[in-house]
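Morning. Coffee machine broken again, so started the prediction first thing and wrote up yesterday's gels while waiting. Chain of 811 residues, entered below exactly as on the submission form.
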Amino acid sequence: MGTPSTHFSESPEDPFALGRGASAALDDHGTVVAWSTRAEELLGYTAEDVIGRAWQTLLVDARDLPVARSIVVDAVKAGGWFGVLPVRHRDGRRVEMGFRARAVTREGGGQEWLLVGAPAADVIAWQRDRALLDGLYRRSPIGLVTYGPDRKVIRVNRAVEKASGVPAEAPVGHRPREFLVDEDAGPADERVRHVLETGEPLIFTEQSARARHDPGRERIVSVSAFRMEDASGRVLGVAETIEDVTERHRAQRRLALLNEAGARIGTSLDVAQTARELAEVAVHGLADYCSVDLLKPVTYGDDPVPGVTGSLIRAALIPPERRVPFQEGDVVPLLPESLQARCLAERRPILEKHLSLRPEWYAMDRRRVEIAMGLGVHSLIAVPLVARGWVLGVVSLWRSGNSEPFEREDAAVADEFSSRAAVCIDNARRFTQQQSAALTLQRSLLPKTGSDLPAVEVACRYLPASGEPGIGGDWFDVIPLSGARVALVVGDVVGHGIHAAASMGRLRAAVRTLASLDLEPDEVVARLDDLVSLLATEIEANADGNQWAIEQMLGATCLYAVYDPVSQHCLLARAGHPAPAVSTPDGEVTVLDLPAGPPLGLGGLPFETYDLELPEGSLLALYSNGLLEARNGDIDTALETLRACLTRAREPVDQTCHAVVDALLPKDHLPTDDIALLIARTRVLRPENVASWQLPLEATAAARARELTTAKLTEWGLADLAFTTELVASELVTNTYRYAAGPVTLRLIRTHCLICEVSDTSHTSPHLRRALSTDEGGRGLFLVAQLTERWGTRYTHDGKTVWTEQPLPLA
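Came back before lunch.
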């Protein structure tokens, strides 16, 4: 009797191990010859109860006997058996037991059977555990790596090869840095060390895994790790599970890229900046190089032409690469055989995973191909930029070096954010187009300040508000008048942008028209006030009119000044506009206290003319309220600063204008309101350039006018103009004698032209008409108009003046 030796297993988890399994021995006739204590615990039979008895009649129920006999036959044939068999407990219960049976040859001949049994539930659970362990290493889709205490790989399963790209046999006996690239091996080795030393498990930690044998292919793996210990707590190593999550990671990265593109592309309405933002996003998340090439009209804000031919303009190249033949701003030829040309022709993305496999790639411009190959370029995506049916250009994304070739999903992502970018570029193009049109309008409305005027030397600054650069509602104007006089105008329309500019244009045109009538300043402002009221009424009556447009018109202000370089008098009137500042040559600065008047279109109060005598070399500064409010809105402080700048009256007027702007505008900020500044330095016509005579209103006045004119022109060295000018003076004086009353004044002025003026006390305006061949008169003004460059009539409180201008002969 006693416990037979099974030597089947030493594992403590094995249900058949010594101390856990029930053991017995049978002779070759099936008689029990040995019975263990564990067998007695499991089945209730003592050794005395079973030894010497046949096992079938004792342990097997009659209904299970056929199965038991079949098992015996199979065991004898195979020399052993393993499986589950129901046996009878001493109390009569059926007990499911798992058995291992093995035939053993005795010394001296004969055969015995050694049996080891355990509860079927324990056996099945143990088998399941063994199957699980076997499955993890042989059939599991999840990678499994086992590290020893020295952090070297002990064993890996086949799934590791698929998850990490590392051959299954390569890692065994090595640390991660020996089979992964350095930047990936370091984190992997540190992870194993941390788990090994601290025992803290890691769960779903994502990291890059690039094998040394294929460094260009990046895989992202999710790693979970735990420390392995035996029953006594001795550290055996670290186990890691590895799952390939590359596709999921790339999908997340592509989604993040699209989100980033939506946030970063189109932050401005500048075509070049938008193209650069597109290239930066592409390089940040998808490509190694990116170029954005636009059709030439697009870069200027014009509409693209139907069909894509000719060349493109490189709008962006990220990262900048000097070796690339075409930098930003360069013209890029569109080669018919290129992938970009095909992309634009077909209006769809073109993906070339491996450029080296395409013969036409090498058939292109040899220099361009050599440079690309020198940069290691090997994969390309070309995406057309199409918005609202217009082809705007093409985006080229390149991968080089060890980067993986582009995939189809990459092309889809590139197409998605390029489509969004195309809309942003088209918006920027349209804005550029509208801004260009508005700037053209603005420039056409503002005067050219470089003209040489006998009355004043002028410097101007125009700074629109920051909302729409270059477009605003403020304006200034310098209008030459008869008699060498000049009109200086500054106005302000409420609001900014193209609508304000359009309103400004209407007012400026009206002021010029009124100025041509040579009216007094208060009358010019009054008629402009009536015009604004009329325009506001028309806007209100228009179905498309709105309150904002009406307020824009009604809130306009204006300052109108006329300076006469002969009399040195300046007449001014204003409608709600800031008062001008005057600086005399001795540096004394005064802000004129002239009547303000209401803003244009409000009516109700009269406008008044302010008369001021200005010494030669005085500065007259006209400005809009945006200049005084630009820095901090403190008007008083701004006026003091303006006075300080104008005290330097003898400096060049342009330099003074620049100093005013620098002093009153913040250095780092664009103005929040439009600013117009006009500074004029007064000039005086010397007495030797002006000749004036008072003639009696009698028949001999015309002859006397001819004599005086001829003598003065000879004195001035303008004898070539004597015949024409004496004829003009004679005709004008004759008309005065016939149709006017009171004394007649003849005046000649020599400036950049020759001016002839005849004044009388009548307010009747002469009219030019074409006399018939049978008429005895009526040809005088017609002759005057033909012989002079300009002529006209201006009215004063005392009468009228008819004036003419003739160009001086070339020296």
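The two ends are 149 Å apart (CA to CA). Going to sketch it on the whiteboard this afternoon.
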